[in-house]
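Notes, Module 5: Reading structure tokens.

Key idea: the token line is not a picture. It is a compressed description, and you learn to read it the same way you learned to read a sequence, by spotting repeated patterns. We will look at two proteins. The first is printed below with its tokens.
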Amino acid sequence: MIDSAPSDVPEFRRVADILRIRVRSRHYAAGERLPAAPALAEELGSNRSAVERAVRVVAAEGLLITKPGSGAYAPRIVDKLIWDGAARYRSSDSESGDPFHDQLRDRGLAPREITNERSETPPADVAALLAVAGDRALPVHEVFAYAADRHAAPNDLGTPLRITRTYTRPDTAHGKEAISYFTANVDTRSPAAEEAAFLNVDADSRVFRLLHTGRDENDLVIAVSVHILPLSLWSLAYQWPSR
């Protein structure tokens, strides 16, 4: 008789795998609070330390939402949304004029936004693209995007999805209608403190930083949009002609 070899998988990873499966299978309903660490440890035949570490790991992936002093909660959105960089700028691809709004409605969610118009000093790379001094304030259109349940009350904004800031060139007579094409640069990083607070993600999680640059037919940069998206909620998709 051969005895089974002990598992090489650390206990917190075993617990994290169970939590991922439970969240994705909706064992925990959207917004439901998970049992406290001692109770969950007893339920899973584990220990409190392993459970607490597992919760931190899964929260960093965006599959749990942690609230200091309150506990861990199941997210409203489990399956990732698709960010189609090309479709975003082709309203003909959408029934409503916004393909992301269509995508949310197809999932039984209601798109909601808070917008602001103001001026601020842009990030250094944006200032360089727009050829302005680094300390010069520029007009910025700011969007905080959410997804709420279709039947949620109007004051329930739902799950934070995205932060977008669009900076426009101040010394051109042409508006956004002069844009002939866009380019996109994609980076990933940890969220800034205010981004983590709005997106309700862990400080150890990752976000996409998409830099979309709109240029005219003479290659002059007209506008630059900076999109901040949590990796836990979004996948990127791009398309281009074969020739």
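Here is the second protein, with the sequence above and the tokens below, as before.
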Amino acid sequence: MSSTGDLRARRLEDRLREARSRNFVGRAEELHVFRTALAGGPEAPAMLYVHGLGGIGKSALLRRFADEAHGAGRVVVEVDGRSGFAPAAFESAAAEALNCDDPLLLVDGFEHCQGLEGWLRQRFLPRLPDRALIVVAGRRPLSPDWRSDPGWAPLLRHLRLSAMSHREAAALLDARQVPAALREGVLSYAKGNPLALCLAGGHRQARRAVGRLVRGHHRTPAGVRRRGSVGLPPPRAGSVRARPHHHPGPAADGAAGPGRRGRGGAVRLVARAAVRRIGAARAVPPRRGA
């Protein structure tokens, strides 16, 4: 009787958390810092700022933080910065964090509302409960004003995400059940970028697209790759690659090409090209008997 009641009490979100936990790989140092902050204590940080290139795993890490906080019984308040909030709208979205004892406030996509930094630092965040933990993620570093503020400087910890190690990337492909024939090529080309690695472990059409792109990369002469070609099809008018760049500059998004400084941009081009091909394959149903 009790067992049946327990089964009925389970929700879909429990299954989602378990699946995410099984597939989460790496980031041991960042998880240690978060768990220390979540436990509290006089030396624990009150705010973590996670930053890194697009596709490097910031959102996945924040989801892991949220799952662990839920498991610890904390109230989790999530704000998506991609909505581009004004101060009043941000405060409305995060209002629950002002009204509980020990909330975890997660703000993702902060680069889209980074103009709120001064207001957050000086007005909103100081109103949170003393036991609150704040985690913000964005592509660009925070303003130096946070470090120069004698109040915030000891309470803030910066976590810059880098590419996965070869071992972590291989474990991620293993968790995603990527076919052995694709693994070495994907590991070589993705350079530890979680987005490209996850695409390879996604839908069957995604695996095929990434496989074609990886094979194209290995067939392309190194000299050509240095000039900017990564074995991708030429951009179509209006495609992602043909649009003007929206980010503040190559350094912020790793979009300098696939050379030594631009591997992140090259991998994202691969990921976007794969997404386009997957979308096209899904939009046109296969012919019967083909």
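Summary for the second protein:
- The radius of gyration is 21 Å.
- The first strand starts at residue 47 and ends at 51.
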